[in-house]
Specification:
Elements (H helix, E strand, L loop, with lengths): L4 H16 L3 H15 L4 H8 L2
Amino acid sequence: MDVPLWLALIVIGWLGIKLTRPPAWLVAVLLLGGFLLAGSSFAPSINDALNP
C-alpha cells in the first residue's frame, strides 16, 4: 500500500496533537519555525547533518 508522504504527515501530526495535547502556540511556533528554517541559508547544512 503506497501512502503519500503528505497524508502520512497529516495523520501522524493529528494523532500527536490529539494524544499529547500540546499548547496551540507551541504547534504554531514549530510549524512556522520549520517553514522559515527550510527556506533559510542554514537548510543545506542541516540537510548534510541529517543525511550522512
